[in-house]
Specification:
By secondary structure, the chain is α/β, with parallel strands linked by helices. The protein has 10 helices and 10 strands. It starts with a helix and ends with a helix.
Length: 302
C-alpha cells in the first residue's frame, strides 16, 4: 500500500527540483524528506532518486511514480472536498498565503472572525508574494492565496484556478514633506519625471508594474533604493531619498516627514482570492472567502 504522505513528498521533490526546496515547501527538514523517500523506495522496491552532481534527480521509476502521485493526490483532495461539502461545515486545516500588506491589512480581522464563526477550522497564514502564492495554490502547497494585480497590469493565472474579488486598493504617491508638490490636492505621475524613485525589489510583480507604468507615462525611472516593506520605503522617503507609490491597504501611520498625495487618474490594485477549482465545494474555502470579502468592505469603507 502506497503511503500518501510519502507520495506527497515525492511529488514535492518533482515539483521543486531538489530535496532542500521540497523540504522548504513542505515546512519540514531535509532529513525528514530523505527518510520519507527512503521508506518509499523500500515500499516500492524501486530506486526513485539518483545522485546528480551535488543534488539528486528522479529516476525513470521516480518520475513515473511522481506523475501518478499528482493524479492520486488530486483525487484525494476531491474526495476530501466532497466529504467536507457533504458534512457542510468548515473544519480541519486551511493553509493560506497572502502578500505582506494584505496579511497586515486584511487578515487579522478575517482570521479572528473565522475563529469565532468556525471554531473547528484551523487556518494557517504565511506571507508570500503573489507569484509564489499562485505556484503554491497550483502545486497544492497552500489551499487559498490572496494575490493582486494592477489596473493596467493583470496577473496571469493558470487554468484550473477559481478566484473571487476582495477589494480595490487605491495607491497614492508618497514624498518628503518638504517636496514642492507635498501640499497639492492631487498629482499626476508626470509631475515626478525628475525625481528619484524608491521601488520594490527587482523581480517582484509590483516592481515590474512600476517600471511599466512610469515608462508608459514617458518617464525613464531613476531608482535610488529598493525595499520590500512599505514602512522601510516610507522611512527612506522621510529621509529625503526619493518618492514612491504607496498603496493604502495595510499602510498604517505615515511618518511626520512624509506627505501622501492622491493621484488624479486613480491607480488601483485589484486584490482577490484564488484557489483550485477542484476544491470549490469546500466549506472552509467559502468561509475564508466570505470573511476576507467582509474585511475588504470594511477597509474600503474607511
Amino acid at each position: 500500500m502506497l503511503n500518501l504522505d510519502r507520495l506527497r513528498t515525492l511529488s514535492a521533490v518533482a515539483r521543486h527540483g531538489s530535496v532542500s526546496a521540497a523540504a522548504e515547501g513542505l515546512h519540514v527538514t531535509t532529513s525528514a524528506v530523505s527518510q520519507q523517500l527512503a521508506k518509499l523506495e523500500r515500499e516500492t522496491g524501486q530506486q526513485l532518486l539518483a545522485k546528480n552532481g551535488r543534488g539528486v534527480r528522479l529516476t525513470d521509476a521516480g518520475r513515473l511514480l511522481a506523475d501518478h502521485a499528482v493524479r492520486i493526490l488530486s483525487q484525494v483532495e476531491l474526495a476530501q472536498a466532497d466529504l467536507e461539502a457533504h458534512r457542510g461545515q468548515a473544519v480541519g486545516e486551511l493553509r493560506l498565503g497572502a502578500f505582506p500588506t494584505a496579511a497586515r491589512g486584511l487578515f487579522p480581522g478575517a482570521l479572528a472572525r473565522l475563529r469565532v464563526d468556525h471554531p473547528q477550522l484551523r487556518p494557517r497564514l504565511t506571507e508570500m508574494e503573489p507569484d509564489v502564492s499562485v505556484r503554491g495554490v497550483v502545486r497544492g502547497d497552500i489551499d487559498l492565496g490572496v494575490v493582486l494585480d494592477w489596473h493596467n497590469r493583470p496577473l496571469s493565472l493558470p487554468e484550473g484556478l477559481a478566484k473571487a474579488p476582495i477589494l480595490d486598493d487605491p495607491a497614492d504617491v508618497a514624498m518628503p514633506a518638504d517636496h514642492p508638490l507635498a501640499r497639492r490636492r492631487s498629482v499626476v505621475l508626470e509631475d515626478f519625471a525628475d525625481d528619484e524613485w524608491i521601488s520594490w525589489p527587482q523581480g517582484e510583480f509590483c516592481h515590474d508594474w512600476l517600471m511599466f507604468t512610469l515608462r508608459g507615462q514617458g518617464i525613464e525611472p531613476r531608482l535610488s533604493h529598493m525595499a520590500e516593506e512599505h514602512h522601510t520605503q516610507l522611512a527612506l522617503i522621510e529621509a529625503g531619498l526619493g518618492v514612491a507609490v504607496a498603496p493604502r491597504l495595510g499602510r498604517g501611520p505615515v511618518p511626520a516627514g512624509v506627505s501622501v498625495v492622491p493621484v488624479r487618474h486613480t491607480m488601483r490594485r485589484h486584490v482577490y482570492a484564488i484557489w483550485r477549482a477542484d476544491a470549490d465545494r469546500r466549506p472552509s474555502i467559502r468561509a475564508a472567502v466570505t470573511v476576507l470579502q467582509e474585511a475588504g468592505k470594511e477597509v474600503e469603507g474607511r
